[in-house]
Amino acid sequence: MNILDQFRLHDKRVLLTGGSRGLGRSMALALASAGADLILVGRDQETLTQTADEIRSLGRTVDTLCQDMNQPEACETACEEALNNYGPIDILVNNVGGRRENIPNEEITIAKWRELMDLNLTSAVVCTKMIGSAMISRGQGGSIINIASINALVAGRNISGRHYETAKAAMVQFTRSVAADWAPKGVRINAILPGGFMTDANKRWAKIHPEVIESFIQSIPLGRFGEPAELGPLAVYLASNASSYMTGASLVIDGGYTLL
Q1: CA 9 to chain centre
Q2: Helix or strand run (H / E) with residue 71
Q3: In the chain, what are the domains?
Q4: Which end of the chain is more exposed for a tag (fewer CB within 10 A), N or C?
Q5: Residues annotated catalytic, as ranges
């Protein structure tokens, strides 16, 4: 077998949350390029449609679900619809999330804390439970990829909103512990911990708080933010048979930021 064949995803179906823009879009296009068909979940139908059209241009099939994964009930609805109408699902990418709020700890309300924890952690827990359970019942294994953050390891600098660090650190341990539970069942679970990538969200930050972005870049040994397309190959690796002996891992991709 050619080594590249181990990275191919033909006849595989991926459910990817937060899949219409940013890192989600880049991973979706990479997975499609490797041969996967996709189900994209996002809260904006316009960007979902745009990304879906890009995937179809690669010759793959794609379906979209417009849901706000900030709500646990919406996560359940999206998973149920995906399984009932577009399954079976071989690969789950829990990508939805974001800091969104720059609120100091002393000012954040309990309601806002819960809202942001639901976005960055509960959404992944719900989707892993529902899609992973279906993988186990099907008996053909599967791969789950949780998109955490280097902020699971280090605090963000010159920024508030520690709900994000808390949720992403919890996601890493959730990944490890459920990976241990489900390894005998053939379902692998790994996490990706991205550093700074020049997504649309970070482009907005660069306009509003250029000093934060510049300070960040100065701390990256490679001297730049990553481009979203640079994350795609890592997602393909974890989704494919190329990583068949890997589970419970947390893979950092940050240009060396956490080295210093």
Answers
A1: 18
A2: none
A3: 3-197+229-252 (3.40.50.720)
A4: N
A5: 164
Under DSSP, the state recorded for 151 is G
User: Within 10 A of 184 (CB to CB), how many other CB atoms are there?
Assistant: 7
Query: Which residues on adjacent β-strands are paired with residue 143?
Result: 91, 188
Alpha-carbon distances, residue 197 vs 69, 206, 232 (angstroms): 22, 12, 12
Return d(Cα 251, Cα 258) in angstroms, integer.
12
* Element (DSSP H or E) covering residue 83: helix 72-86
Which tokens belong to 31? 């997975």
pTM of the entire structure? 0.95
How far from the centroid of its chain's Cα atoms is residue 119's Cα?
Answer: 12
Q: Residue 99, SS3?
A: coil
User: What is the structure's pLDDT at 38?
Assistant: 98
Quickly tell me which residue has 């996601």 as its tokens: 171
3: which DSSP letter?
G
More reliable by pLDDT, 91 or 159: 91
Write out pLDDT tens, residues 219-247. Answer: 999 999 999 999 999 999 999 999 999 99
Contact between 188 and 247 under an 8 Å Cβ cutoff? The reply is yes
- Tell me what pLDDT residue 122 has: 97
As a residue count, the chain comes to 260
Helix 72-86 and helix 123-138: axis angle, to 10°?
30
pLDDT score for 15: 98
Amino acid identity for residue 252 in this structure = V
Match 């399954």 to its residue by tokens. Answer: 87
